Structure formats: C-alpha cells, structure tokens
C-alpha cells in the first residue's frame, strides 16, 4: 500500500467518523421533539416539508461545526429520512431537493434558520428549544 493510499483511506475514515458523529448528535437532538410530533401531522405535505427543512437546518448547523460540506450534510439528511420515517424513495428525494434549494427560496429559509438556531441552542445546553421550535413550526 502506497503512502497516498494510506492517506486517502485515513481521510475517508475521518469523513465517515464525522458523518457518524453528526448522525448521533442529530438523533439525540431530535428524539425529544419527535415524540411530540403526531405521525398524522407528517402526512400533510406542507408540514412534512417544514419538518425536513427544520431537520436540514439542524444538520447544516452541525455540519459547519464539523467542517462538512453541503453534499455530506444532504447525505445525513437522506440517511435520517430513510431511517426515521416511512417515506418512499420518491418522497425522500423530493424533500432532499427542497432542502438543497432552500437557500434559493425565501419561503423555506425560516424553517432552515429555525432548525439551525434550535441546534445551536441545544449544543449550548438549552434542550427545550428544539421541542418548542419544531412545535411552533408545525402549527399553522
């Protein structure tokens, strides 16, 4: 094995480790909030979109801290949506597309910002913020 092979394998392992850490933090952050979300709520497309945008905001907040790029953040979103919901691949793809273009859409920015802010608060020990932010975002 050459020096470059070792170097690239080490970098790939570091990236994988960071993604795993991010997924674990995301799960710990969202678990209290998800217990309050009625599964019927997520059958409403507008609320499901807001939910995904909120989660994406939380992921981007963590990704910045872990120095991950947008592609890696979106990969965590895909993984989370597939593992934590009963959404089919088409719906997961649609939600990821909405999140990927969220910075281009004025109406989506508040949900992403709310997720990022709630994650920042949570990381500082303010655990109730995520629950209240998600509840407020999904009520309309």
Descriptive notes:
The chain is an all-alpha fold. It has one domain. It contains six helices and no strands. α1 (3-34) packs across α2. The longest helix has 32 residues, at 3-34. The N and C termini lie far apart (58 Å). The mean pLDDT is 82.
Structure keywords:
140 residues, 0% strand, single chain
Beta-strand percentage range? under 5%
Helical residues, percent:
over 70%
Q: How many separate domains make up the residues? A: 1
Q: Could you give a short account of the major beta sheet?
A: none
Give the mean pLDDT: 82
Query: Structural class of the helix and strand makeup?
Result: mainly alpha
Shape: globular
Order of helices and strands: HHHHHH
User: What is the helix tally?
Assistant: 6
DSSP summary, beta strand count: 0
Q: Which consecutive residue ranges, at least 5 long each, have pLDDT under 50?
A: none
Computed over alpha carbons, the radius of gyration is: 16 Å
Give the distance, in angstroms, between the N- and C-terminal Cα atoms.
58 Å
């Amino acid at each position: 094995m050459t020096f470059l092979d070792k170097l690239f394998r080490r970098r790939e392992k570091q990236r994988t480790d960071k993604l795993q850490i991010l997924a674990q933090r995301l799960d710990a952050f969202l678990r209290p909030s998800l217990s309050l979300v009625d599964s019927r709520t997520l059958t409403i497309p507008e609320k499901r979109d807001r939910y995904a945008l909120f989660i994406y905001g939380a992921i981007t907040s963590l990704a910045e801290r872990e120095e991950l790029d947008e592609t890696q953040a979106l990969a965590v979103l895909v993984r989370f949506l597939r593992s934590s919901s009963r959404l089919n691949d088409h719906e997961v793809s649609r939600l990821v597309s909405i999140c990927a273009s969220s910075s281009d859409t004025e109406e989506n920015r508040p949900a992403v910002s709310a997720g990022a802010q709630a994650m920042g608060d949570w990381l500082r020990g303010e655990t109730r913020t995520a629950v209240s932010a998600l509840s407020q975002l999904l009520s309309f």
